[in-house]
């Protein structure tokens, strides 16, 4: 799908859509005005549905562009888990730092209502270019690392269940909330 001429939000495609299965194409010129417009489309699309990240393939556009943010309420307390306002990153590259991994819950706008425990590197270095031409090179951990990895997976046709070590944790989010309440009740009894 070509980049639309308008900044208007696009619908989020769901699992099974061909755009979510393909490797997205490198962007030859990250500062092309059309890429800045794609960034605004991603922001507007995410704003309509809520969430902390979105990749271009999730709106049917097969380019290596992601949007993510790290709100204070999602920080894990890890020393390099830092707050981040909405950032559009073009042609991102991720390098794991060390061998430590951690498992945590994830959800995805392309798998509405589902959640599961995903194993990922604890710390990463990510690099890329903003549509304004700013080179980004950061080392992060915690939720910040998780959201960047999750969004960049979409650029390679990967959905989070493909990274789950135990598929028995894949469930509807409502069931997870019930399970969490049940486990809390058992520990206080």
Count of helical segments?
3
Percent helix range:
10-25%
Mean pLDDT over all positions:
94
Shape: globular
The biggest sheet, with number of strands, parallel, antiparallel or mixed sense and barrel status, is:
6 strands, antiparallel
Q: Radius of gyration in whole Å, from Cα?
A: 17 Å
Helices and strands, in N-to-C order?
A: HEEEEEHEH
What is the straight-line distance between the termini? 55 Å
Low-pLDDT ranges: none
Proportion of residues in β-strands: 25-35%
Describe the structure.
Strands 1, 2, 3, 4, 5 and 6 form a 6-stranded antiparallel sheet that branches. Helix content is 24%, strand content 31%. The chain has 189 residues and is α+β, with helices and mostly antiparallel strands. The protein has helices spanning 33-49, 142-154, 173-188; strands at 53-55, 65-70, 84-107, 114-129, 135-141, 171-172. The mean pLDDT is 94. The protein contains 3 helices and 6 strands, in the order H-E-E-E-E-E-H-E-H. The radius of gyration is 17 Å and the shape is globular.
Outline the secondary-structure elements.
Elements (H helix, E strand, L loop, with lengths): L32 H17 L3 E3 L9 E6 L13 E24 L6 E16 L5 E7 H13 L16 E2 H16 L1
Antiparallel strand pairs: 1-2, 2-3, 3-4, 4-5, 4-6
